[in-house]
Amino acid sequence: MSVGVNTETLVRIEEIQGRGRGLVSTQPLRGGQIVVVDSPILLYSALPLTKQQHSTFLYCDKCFKTIQSASVSCPTCSHRRFCSPTCLSAALASSHGPWVCQSLSRLRDCQDFLQHHSVERQTQAQFLIAAYNLAFVSPSDFQILLSLQGRAEDEDPAIVQSLHSVLSSLCPPPPIEGFSFSLELIAALIAKDKFNAFGLMEPLNLNEENGGQRSVRAYGIYPKASLFNHDCLPNACRFDYVDTNNSGNTDIVVRMIHDVSQGREICLSYFPVNSNYSTRRKRLLEDYGFTCDCDRCKVEATWSDDECDGDDNEVMEEDVDEPMEAESDGEEIDNGNSADFPHAYFFLRYMCNRNNCWGTLAPFPPSDGKPSNLLECNACGAIKNDEVC
Fold first, then answer.
1. pTM of the model
2. 354 touches 208 (CB < 8 A)
3. Beta-strand (E) ranges in 17-164?
4. pLDDT in tens, 29-39
5. Is 366 helix (H, G, I), strand (E, B) or coil?
6. Which N-terminal stretch is annotated as signal sequence (predicted)?
7. φ, ψ for residue 169, nearest 5 deg
């Protein structure tokens, strides 16, 4: 998907009580309208070092497209593969320079590290190498990374010490003016990654055996997109088109799910919308350090344990028999009219109904000021003709 729109004036950053910084609409926004297009300042592989060659798919280590034909290997380490000589040359000059190449090779060859450190630690080590390298190739982007949300003091000192010891002994980084490879810096970087990284997903497998599970191929730090706060019933969702042939294939595109008025906060869901209350609450607290009090959570918190503990892959069929009245043209959805389940309309209209998908649907961007009646799933890419629009 080619995106050539100016979104700079559609949202502004505001401090929101109890939620920190967020993005708020500066004007009425229509469903499908693109509000943010963001490029990553940092990308790194999500595959553990022990499985780089054993994934179901093979990805370019520069653009992270699925490699469909012959690949080009790094001439030094031969472990990292690229989809073309162009991507190889670009990587050697930036994300896969000599120190990165040597560091990843040493980690991969260190059996003690691989055997005694979890997949999560392996991925964090790859992030730290990529982040420290960013300070060399783009000091301004490194400063942006350090400015993002995430507090060093919240990180586990034992994990920080372990990663510092491994990287300092196996692949000590060269000095950077103004920074030392300290415990404090590692803790700060891990915190930034934890709170701001977006996953670029593998192609979705919808077969019954797979159960719709979808793994991450790479993680990226997107400064603008990281400002979106979470809502369990979002009014926007993000799309990525990694396997397209367009430039900027790793950009994140955020589109409105439905109309909103001026001054409304624009929110994403940090995980699939079909997750039940207990799952959402646990994940938000463990991964992001907060408890959600959105309208949906307030309603579902009053439900019994049996009502809340249903299968995450069921769209609460008993609750969507009578959907809310559709919003009139140019008005946003009201999420607070029903005491039992005020969000049934959202599930009927904006959740993909393909088996094992559970993606979110958003209209295509308006054309000539007219809303589109076609909705696209942000997980499987399916197109739905929406007769309500």
1. 0.87
2. no
3. 20-25, 34-38, 42-45, 72-73, 81-82
4. 999 999 999 99
5. coil
6. none
7. -85, -40
